[in-house]
Specification:
Elements: H1 3-12, E1 17-20, H2 21-27, E2 36-41, H3 45-57, E3 60-62, H4 68-72, H5 74-84, E4 88-93, E5 98-103, H6 110-116, E6 118-122, E7 125-129, H7 132-142, H8 145-158
Parallel strand pairs: 2-5
Antiparallel strand pairs: 1-2, 3-4, 4-5, 6-7
């Protein structure tokens, strides 16, 4: 299954989401290898229920120790983020060897990110993608060396003005 199939299913179910991570980098013109589809989602329960159900219908299930009921409840979702020290939950498709990461923390207001998002046409769909500015901010905020590298590459692509210490 291609990630475009996942995106199509999410759109067909009217799930409120935005593509982020490596796929967003690619949409913004930065070449990268994308092995995981990263999504920002509206964390309202109804949207999350549709997301979990749609991914399950495609053969994806949360990677342990996350269970669907932990993801749907805002309180347990917050505890999950705290306990795992990670703001994402990974869904894995064993048949397709596919990974979908869903951000569970609303550090940057989702509504603001959604309003600033851009839409790209691909595979006959209009795909919402996090803006380059928000993607750059998210990559820098994570502090992970890969994200900092990606931020540098995105900054160079956009303006050539990003200066970072080694």
């Amino acid at each position: 299954m291609r990630y475009s199939d996942v995106i199509k299913a999410l759109k067909d179910q009217a799930i409120d989401f935005i593509v982020a991570g490596g796929h967003a980098l690619t949409f913004h013109g930065v070449d990268t290898i994308n092995t995981t589809l990263h999504l920002l989602v509206n964390l309202k329960r109804k949207n999350m229920e549709k997301l979990v159900d749609t991914l399950a219908g495609l053969g994806y299930s949360p990677v342990v120790p996350a269970h669907a009921d932990h993801i749907l409840n805002a309180t347990s979702r917050g505890q999950l983020v705290k306990d795992r020290r990670s703001d994402t939950v990974t869904f894995y498709n064993t048949k397709e060897n596919g990974l979908v990461d869903v951000c569970l923390r609303d550090e940057m207001d989702y509504k603001t990110i959604k309003q600033g998002s851009v839409t790209y046409a691909k595979a006959g769909m209009r795909i919402p993608v996090v803006s380059a500015a928000h993607l750059l901010e998210m990559k820098m905020r994570s502090g992970k060396w890969r994200d900092i590298r990606d931020a540098r590459r995105l900054g160079e692509k956009l303006e050539g003005k990003i200066v970072m210490a080694n």
